Amino acid sequence: MFNRLHRMTALIMLMSLLGVILAACGGGGTGGTGGTGGTGGTTASTAPGGEGTTGGAASAAGTTGGGAGTATTATAGTTGGGAGTATTATAGTTGGGAGTATTATAGTTGGGAGTATTATAGTTGGGAGTATTATAGTTGGAAGGQTAAAECPATAQGQQITMWSPLTGPDGDEMTGLANQFSQDNPQGIRVQHVAQPQYLEKLNTAAAGGALPDMTVIRTYDMPEMAVRNVLKPMSDEALSIIGAGSGEEFPPEAWQAGEFRGQRYMIPLDVHPLVLYYNRDMFQQAGITMPTDRPMTREEFDAAVQALNKNGVAGVAIGTGFGGATLFQTLVRQNGGTLVNEEGTEATYNSEEGVQALTYLRDLKQANTPQVSGTGDPEVKVFQQQRAAMVMHGPWHLSDMQKLPFVGYAQLPQFGPEFSVWGNSHQLTLATDDPAKQAAAACWIGWLSQNSVQWAKAGQVPARQSAREGGQLESVMPPVALFAAQAEAVEFLPQVPGIEAALWAQAFGPAVDAVLLGQQQDVGAALDSAAQKSNQLLQQNAQRYQQ
Amino acid sequence: MATSQQAGTQTIATTGTPARRRVNFVPYLFILPHLIFFTAFLAYPFFYGIYISLFNFDFLRPEFRPFVGLQNYNNILFNRNSVQFTDFWSAIGNTAQFILYSVPFLVIFALLLAVLLNGNYRGRNVFRGLYFAPYALSVTVAAVLWRWIFENGGLLDTYLTRIGLPPLGGLGAQPGAWIGITVATIWWTIGFNTVIFLAALQEIPESLYEAASLDGANKVQQFFRITIPMLRPVLVFVITIALLASANLFGQPHIMTGVQSRVVGTESIVQRIYDEGIIQYRMGSAAAMSVSVAAVLLLLTTLNFRIFGRGEQQ
């Protein structure tokens, strides 16, 4: 019996040890490249709303600024006319708008065609609203006066798109809602199914090995290059890019847009930017007689004074955690001090500079004076703040939905500690994992729509990456604190897009070093950062070798 | 033992009829289902693991897969300047610590519990069920549960402070992290060992205890002179199982100390392998770690059987 038992246990052991690694490695191989697909067909808008006004003359409106109302055949004026509910409505040549009509033709210059069966918007800057067959303006028009119409080719017709995301919190429900809305509203019958996946990258890897990748994904900025070089993500075709209509990224924060490009090809379109923000306890500020932060960042002096005044009676001035919280603040401070994390080529760590040492020393002292005990996973520093045991906390904007349940929370931009204003942040970006042209086209239609309507995404606490969604006071109506955070979107700096750079710098190197210093395990800040930087450099070198072309 | 005797008679029977050399396929058919699964899920991955440990390997990059010989082994075992070296050895150290903390409890507590549950009293089946119940949970459930209790500002610290004791300080620092993980592990897995002990205890003939009590042996003497010797084979088995289970520590620190495991000092060797292979895509290096650790555990298991199982094998 014992020999058998002996052997059996030995085998059980081997199996359990190797199982994890080997099961994953057993897959091997990646899918081939897809076939070809046609383009062209009728172009149609997916944007809601129309400019078409009702009222005005019944049959034919004046030549200048007329409006054709409910009529069978309505012709609006040549300059700025509007054709209302009509069977055949022709809006003016300059800035006209055709309303609910069977066949509506909007003006040649800046017109808008509303709910119509066949709506043709202006050639220059026109916009076609909810229509079965709608042609938007050739030069970036806006339907419904707000959103530009994305052209969606016939190949996209009726495609089913699966989309994965790491959005497992309430933001995932928000995304599912948007996907459902698009699926219902788009005239091409494209259906988007959104699935939020925990253990996101592991899932993508397994799916890639098993040939079961989704058509598109939401991915965090720094995961793209490694996933691209590992054949998981596919570059966006020129056709897909033209459908999305993001041009050369004028509408996006330059750094976030730049991060979407890798080895000369575009892989991602920014959806949002999520910078660190400051949450503060309004009641405590009031009681201590401290001026509340306004719409500009607090200065270091103001911040330090506030911390000192608030840090009493068992309440910490500010809650500083470890892990994610510590590491993101460290990065922010290094850059605010004028330092960098890595050289421009992404080949050598630079965070062990004088600026880096100052940043970490300041952070450690701040933590030691306020919340020396707070550490561990699950963002305990945020909990400490929510339990009113700390007056401030600096963390990601995704806590917004929880924070809004607490009446005492105030929102502000991150303070400016150094000479520069820089904030740690990341970005959710939209990428393709399919190279089937029809799927890419359909996914591009959805990405275009999502980008246009990304103001809705602010409900999830995220700052929309698209400028048009951030401006014009729309954010205030959707989610007021996000409007405040949005001012920081341009202050977010990104790392150079080198495969595996974030892990080589952060998770494997300065992350543990920062924690060791913050927890008082390591007293010598300079030495801690130096040895971390050495490790980073080795990993960057290894990555450069294994990810060369 | 009964099985080896049967095997012996069979051997004699076949050698007794040397004329027939025909191969009998029936026994092989009986083991075929197991053989298929064994080959597919054990033998093949095992040898494939050894194979990939000799490469710079990423399963999604077939285009870049250079043969590196024993370099992966050299990096983790001997090359002090490699990034892999320090993390690998600190993970080994952490796992060894955990084995020291958990195995004695998992064996001794399980034995004591089994003795208690073996008594003759009302409701003992309820207790047997209760003590075994946590084992039916997944590691995630058990770990999340205990994280809530042990985490910074969690249940434990809240109540400790309330009764005027100093808090443990959560899972973000020692000794809280190891205490939390060890307690969670014991609570979660002790039921399994207890059940094995319980089954073995019921096998011990009552007559031995009766004879001993007639000779005037008290309960303690009976325990050490009868129960422990009679349990010896099972004891070896339980120690081995507990040792291997502890060496495979993964889920508890993965959930309870998470990404901070390395800083806190609870990163186990399996976590390290997971991080190296699945998170950082250095699968060759991770496979080399697996193979090295497997070799060590094989050695430990053999030693364990040699030392504790001596004299039991004939």
Can you tag this structure with a few keywords?
heterodimer; A: 549 residues; alpha/beta; D-Maltodextrin-Binding Protein, domain 2; 18 helices; 23 strands; 36% helix; globular; B: 314 residues; mainly alpha; MetI-like fold; 14 helices; disordered N terminus
- Structure classification of chain B: mainly alpha
Low-confidence blocks of residues of chain B: 1-16
Q: Kindly report the oligomeric state of this protein.
A: heterodimer
Tell me the fraction of residues in β-strands of chain B, as a range: under 5%
Distance between the termini of chain A: 56 Å
- Number of continuous helical runs of chain B: 14
Biggest interface pair, counts: A-B, 67 and 69 residues
List the secondary-structure elements of chain B in sequence, H or E.
Answer: HHHHHHHHHHHHHH
Name of the CATH superfamily of the domain at 277-423 and 497-546 in chain A? Periplasmic binding protein-like II
Mean pLDDT of chain A: 76
What is the strand tally of chain B?
A: 0
CATH fold-type name of the domain at 277-423 and 497-546 in chain A: D-Maltodextrin-Binding Protein, domain 2
CATH class bucket of chain B: Mainly Alpha
Report on the architecture of this protein:
- The complex is a heterodimer of chains A (549) and B (314).
- In chain A, 36% of the residues lie in helices and 17% in strands.
- Chain A has a six-stranded mixed β-sheet. Chain A has a five-stranded parallel β-sheet with strand order 1-3-5-7-9, with no helix packed on it.
- In chain A, helix 9 packs across helix 10.
- In chain A, 58% of the residues are buried.
- Chain B has 314 residues and is an all-alpha fold.
- At the A-B interface, helix 1, helix 3, helix 11, helix 17 and helix 18 of A face helix 2, helix 10, helix 13 and helix 14 of B.
Task: Spell out the blueprint of helices and strands.
The complex is a heterodimer of chains A (549) and B (314).
Chain A: H1 2-25, E1 67-68, E2 71-75, E3 82-83, E4 86-90, E5 97-98, E6 101-105, E7 112-113, E8 116-120, E9 127-128, E10 131-135, E11 142-143, E12 147-148, E13 160-165, H2 170-185, E14 191-196, H3 200-209, E15 216-220, H4 223-229, H5 238-244, H6 254-258, E16 261-262, E17 265-266, E18 268-275, E19 277-281, H7 282-287, H8 300-310, H9 323-336, H10 354-370, H11 380-386, E20 392-395, H12 400-403, E21 409-412, E22 425-432, H13 437-452, E23 463-464, H14 467-470, H15 474-478, H16 480-486, H17 501-518, H18 525-546
Chain B: H1 2-16, H2 26-52, H3 71-77, H4 83-117, H5 124-132, H6 139-150, H7 155-162, H8 176-203, H9 206-214, H10 219-247, H11 251-256, H12 261-264, H13 269-279, H14 283-308
Helix pairs in contact in B: 3-14, 4-8, 4-10, 4-13, 6-8, 8-10, 10-14, 13-14
